[in-house]
């Protein structure tokens, strides 16, 4: 898990360093989906047409009489770019997401990658609601398992 976390931070640092400028701002968000690693929170660096984020959350939850509370939580990172689909506005975001994508059979977070589409009601650099989806894939016992994360959140 530590290696995956470090890999996520390195990928995010490369994206941030290539696009950071004085116009960028830090924001925080809550919600569910890839932007918040399941049900969780994020910290993001936003610009006019991009958003890089680090997220922490739980990809599922439950209770078992044998195991007690089941909370497969993890940390993820992602990048959203809004000028890939259209230059007309910065509401439609397309990006990549690395880390929690589902729950393993042993009730722990399953790690992988996904491609994110998100619609940001106030644009990528505004406060407001966002909605979207992330088809994702991750390995479990040597087999690829696909999942779909539904993104609903609010960016402050």
What order do the helices and strands come in, and which of them pair?
Elements: H1 2-19, E1 25-33, E2 38-46, E3 50-58, E4 62-64, E5 68-70, E6 73-81, E7 92-98, E8 102-103, E9 109-110, E10 112-120, E11 128-140, E12 143-155
Antiparallel strand pairs: 1-2, 1-12, 2-3, 3-6, 4-5, 6-7, 7-10, 8-9, 10-11, 11-12
Structural class: mainly beta
- Order of strands in the sheet with most strands: 1-2-3-6-7-10-11-12
Tell me the domain tally.
1
Average pLDDT, rounded to a whole number, is 85
Shape: elongated
N- to C-terminal distance: 29 Å
Percent of sequence in beta strands = over 45%
* Structure summary, number of beta strands: 12
Q: What count of helical segments does DSSP give?
A: 1
Helix content: 10-25%
Radius of gyration: 15 Å
Q: Pick out the low-confidence regions.
A: none
Order of helices and strands: HEEEEEEEEEEEE
How does this model look, in words?
By secondary structure, the protein is mainly beta. The chain has one domain. Helix content is 12%, strand content 56%. The chain contains one helix and twelve strands. The strands form three sheets. The chain has an eight-stranded antiparallel beta barrel. A hairpin with a 7-residue loop joins strand 10 (112-120) and strand 11 (128-140). It starts with a helix and ends with a strand. The mean pLDDT is 85.
Summarize the structure.
Helices cover 12% and strands 56% of the residues. The protein is built from 1 helix and 12 strands.
């Amino acid at each position: 898990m530590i290696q995956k976390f470090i890999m996520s931070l390195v990928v995010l640092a490369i994206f941030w360093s290539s696009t950071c400028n004085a116009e960028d701002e830090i924001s925080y968000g809550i919600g569910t989906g890839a932007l918040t690693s399941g049900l969780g929170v994020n910290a993001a660096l936003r610009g006019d047409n991009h958003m890089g984020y680090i997220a922490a959350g739980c990809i599922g939850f439950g209770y078992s009489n044998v195991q007690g509370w089941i909370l497969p939580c993890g940390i993820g990172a992602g990048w959203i770019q809004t000028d890939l689909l259209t230059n007309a506005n910065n509401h439609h975001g397309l990006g990549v997401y690395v880390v929690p994508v589902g729950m393993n059979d042993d009730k722990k977070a399953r790690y992988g990658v996904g491609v994110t589409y998100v619609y940001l009601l106030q644009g990528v650099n505004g406060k407001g609601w966002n909605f979207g989806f992330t088809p994702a894939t991750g390995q479990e016992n040597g087999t690829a398992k696909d999942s779909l994360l539904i993104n609903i959140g609010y960016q402050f």
